[in-house]
Amino acid sequence: MNDMRRIERATDMKETKISARHVNVHYGDTHAIKDVSVEIQDKTVTAFIGPSGCGKSTFLRCINRMNDTIDIARIDGDIRIDGEDIYDPKVDPVQLRAKVGMVFQKPNPFPKSIFDNVAYGPRIHGLARTKAELDEIVEKSLRRAAIWDEVKDRLQQPGTGLSGGQQQRLCIARAVATEPEVLLMDEPCSALDPIATAQVEELIDELKQNYSVVIVTHSMQQAARVSQKTAFFHLGTLVEYGETGDIFTKPEDSRTESYITGRIG
Ligand SMILES: Nc1ncnc2c1ncn2[C@@H]1O[C@H](COP(=O)(O)OP(=O)(O)OP(=O)(O)O)[C@@H](O)[C@H]1O
Fold it and tell me: Which residue of 33, 49, 58, 71 sits with most ligand 1 atoms within 8 Å of its CB, as the best mutation to test the pocket?
């Protein structure tokens, strides 16, 4: 499919939140992302799928400049959020990461209390003027992450003492506490049991009311359950992008079909 078709299929109805044009990523001599252009919609869950090593996480990390932290990574092309070039030298990556939150594969709470995990971002970005305001942000974030009831009586206990599924929801609360506009999730359920996975998936569905959510997943069932748009990557290229229902039932590219029917990957 050419770029324009892809974009046309993707931009019906909702507004574009993230616009990537001709993005290439190299790690030294490895060409990990090859001329990827895509428009990601606001208030939508977009799934990135594809075989291991196809570049899903690399592309995801371009969206909040996490690849900047990898010495050998070189990123070329243009990525805009609400029309603003996120690689403009004027953009502070720390501020950008407050606006573009990220949740990782393994829950990674800080070795701090549950309260301080969530309060960390608002504190460093000066989002609360008083203790009461900070308390309010922490409660609101924990509620949004559907974990408030489980932790409200133990806010001063360490975040690392929670179960894996609770830790991941705490990390989601931490990510939403800075009022991001985009939430990037890199296989957020891979370390969770089926019950915790279901809770996080339900949460992702609610989060899309406020955010543009982009999720990397190895599970096609999960992509089908949580996303409205799906992007299929193969060997560093974006092969196909469109409505999740279309990608899974009538893919246009034979590589997509092979992947979803289990013949590659
Ligand atoms: N930090 C790094 N240094 C060097 N090469 C890397 C680095 N991270 C990824 N790569 C390479 O870039 C390519 C894409 O990797 P990436 O992790 O983005 O793929 P992926 O689709 O997310 O894979 P998986 O599904 O296995 O997590 C691979 O060839 C990988 O080996």
Answer: 58
User: Residues 121-148: pLDDT tens digits?
Assistant: 999 999 999 999 999 999 999 998 889 9
ipTM comes to 0.97
> If you ran DSSP here, which 8-state letter would residue 107 be given?
-
The dotted CATH code for 3-260 is 3.40.50.300
pLDDT (tens digit per residue) in 37-72: 999 999 999 999 999 999 999 999 999 999 999 999
pTM, rounded to two decimals: 0.91
Q: Which of 54, 69, 189, 218 to mutate to test the pocket of ligand 1 (most atoms within 8 A of CB)?
A: 54
Q: Is residue 117 within 8 Å of residue 159, measured between CB atoms?
A: yes
Evaluate: CB of 158 within 6 angstroms of ligand 1: no
Cα-trace Rg, the chain: 18
- pLDDT tens for 151-162 read 999 999 999 999
Domains of the chain, residue spans: 3-260
Mutate to test the pocket of ligand 1, among 24, 25, 30 (most ligand atoms within 8 A of CB): 30
Query: Among candidates 121, 152, 157, 123, which has minimal Cα distance to 139?
Result: 152
From the alpha carbon of 59, which atom of ligand 1 is closest? 18
Provide the CA 22 distance to its chain's centre, in angstroms. Answer: 20
DSSP H stretches of helix in 161-265: 164-176, 194-207, 220-226, 244-249, 254-260
